[in-house]
Amino acid sequence: TLVPGHGGTFRYILAAFGRLPAFLYGWANWLVIQAGALGVVALVLVDNLEVLLFGEHRLSPDAKVAIAVGTMLLFTGTNVIGLRVGKRVQNLLTVLKVLAVFFLVGLAWCSTAVAEVPTAPSGRSLPSMLAQAMLPVLFAIGGWQQGSFLAGAAKRPQPTGACSP
């Protein structure tokens, strides 16, 4: 409510630090931050599809990148066609994800197998292993800042919750 209008993080940086930092952030967000995140998510999709279809990793890195680019173009195309098509695709994928989670929970519930805990060191340093473990955590909680892009569309915004005066 203190910085009204559309633009999310860009508007906040503009109000706090001025035009140049906001301009640089805008371009960095477009060319690096969002594009990089989309690329990583597409590659994770390809890795998971590869294991699902083949049971192991068979594709070359170049093939994985090509398939990832293809999936990004496919999903971009569904949104370019129209909001209704994009909505249907998103709803279908959401239903499939929820069903997959229920399937995994059911599988875990019915399973009697005990996971083996590795006892031998992997040869990597502790900071390296912690950094690798943090990547999925950061992606899982990394969408919090995206809500600011919708702030300008709020009708009659009012502060609520713990941050209210």
Written description of the protein model:
The protein has 165 residues and is mainly alpha-helical. It has 5 helices and no strands. The longest helix is centred in the N-terminal third of the chain and has 36 residues, at 19-54. The chain is extended and about 55 Å long. The chain starts with 8 loop residues before the first helix and ends in a 24-residue tail after the last helix. The relative contact order is 0.10. The model has no long low-confidence stretch (mean pLDDT 85).
Categorize the overall geometry.
extended
**Biggest sheet features:** none
Radius of gyration, rounded?
21 Å
Please mark out the parts with pLDDT under 50 across 5 or more consecutive residues, or reply none. Answer: none
SSE topology string: HHHHH
Number of strands: 0
Structural class: mainly alpha
Please tally the helical runs, counting DSSP H or I stretches of 4 or more residues.
Answer: 5
Gap between N and C termini, in Å? 12 Å
Helix content: 55-70%
Mean pLDDT: 85
Key structural traits:
165 residues, mainly alpha, 5 helices, 0% strand
Topology, element by element:
Elements: H1 9-17, H2 19-54, H3 61-81, H4 83-110, H5 126-141
Helix pairs in contact: 1-2, 2-3, 3-4
Summarize the structure.
This protein has 165 residues and is mainly α. It is built from five helices and no strands. The chain has helices at 9-17, 19-54, 61-81, 83-110, 126-141.
